[in-house]
Specification:
Layout: H1 7-12, H2 14-17, H3 23-32, E1 34-38, H4 44-54, E2 58-62, H5 87-98, E3 103-107, H6 116-120, E4 125-128, H7 133-145, E5 149-156, E6 159-166, H8 191-194, H9 198-217, E7 226-231, E8 236-241
Parallel strand pairs: 1-2, 1-4, 2-3, 4-5
Antiparallel strand pairs: 5-6, 6-7, 7-8
Helix pairs in contact: 4-9
Length: 245
């Protein structure tokens, strides 16, 4: 299918299009892209918002949680009027106000072994905003199976991690090459237990959106086989390489 940009889209995204690295070709790639966001919480909210603002054509969102008052400080798509509502429904309403022309598909469920295959294979790019390692490893495995491009984020306290994987490349390391399943506790991602500064979630989620857009447009330097480690308490950003085992 040929992707075109109408006059209104060219005007709306003009500040992106004038960038030499993007242009109309890059904007068409953004419009054509199908992105799935898994978990529409602290990471998923800013990721979804900036992908929609950038002009993503098709966005899928999966989450089974409701908005809780303790979510408000870091989950930027929600406010006090949304309490006890399903996050995916609230998020869709807010995102369509930003760009009503976009296709937004919501899944009111938790990703699991039974539904992962049917959902993930429909999308080209996956953004992992989940908050537990069982789900992260599940996403990792199905993205390998279907050769997807994946951006994973994790946060705790003042710290964040961001990974980018391109599983079309057989040399790409996976999440399991960095985290060992039998060595890591979900307490490391549990905001109820460890706590988190709201801006940490926003910065990591926005970085995930940035990495996804770079992959979609095939521009810039990838984080493939690296982890970006963010320490916001001391304002430290560093990248560490790791290999496929």
């Amino acid at each position: 299918m040929t992707i075109t940009l109408n006059k209104k889209e060219i005007e709306k995204f003009s500040k992106q299009i004038i960038l030499k690295k993007i242009g109309t070709l890059g904007q068409k790639k953004i419009k054509k892209a199908k992105v799935l966001i898994i978990g529409i919480g602290g990471l998923g909210c800013p990721a979804a918002e900036f992908l929609v603002r950038a002009g993503i054509g098709t966005l899928g969102i999966i989450d089974n949680d409701i908005v809780n008052i303790s979510n408000i400080h870091r989950q930027s798509l929600y406010n006090l009027k949304d309490l006890n509502e399903l996050k995916v429904e609230c998020a869709k309403k807010k995102l369509l106000k930003i760009n009503p022309k976009k296709i937004i598909k919501i899944f009111k469920t938790r990703l699991n072994e039974k539904n992962a295959s049917g959902i993930i294979k429909k999308y080209d790019f996956i953004v992992d905003g989940s908050d537990n390692f069982k789900t992260k490893f599940l996403i990792n495995d199905y993205c390998i199976k279907f050769k997807k491009k994946l951006v994973t984020g994790a946060i705790s306290k003042f710290d964040g991690h961001v990974f980018t994987f391109d599983f079309k490349d057989k040399k790409t390391a996976s999440l399991k090459n960095f985290y060992q399943e039998n060595e890591i506790s979900d307490d490391n991602l549990n905001c109820e237990f460890m706590g988190v500064l709201g801006t940490t979630a926003s910065i990591v989620g926005t970085t995930q959106a940035n990495e996804a857009l770079k992959m979609i447009m095939e521009i810039g330097q990838s984080l493939k086989n690296q982890i970006l480690i963010i320490d916001l308490l001391n304002l430290n950003f560093r990248k560490v390489k790791f290999k496929k085992k």
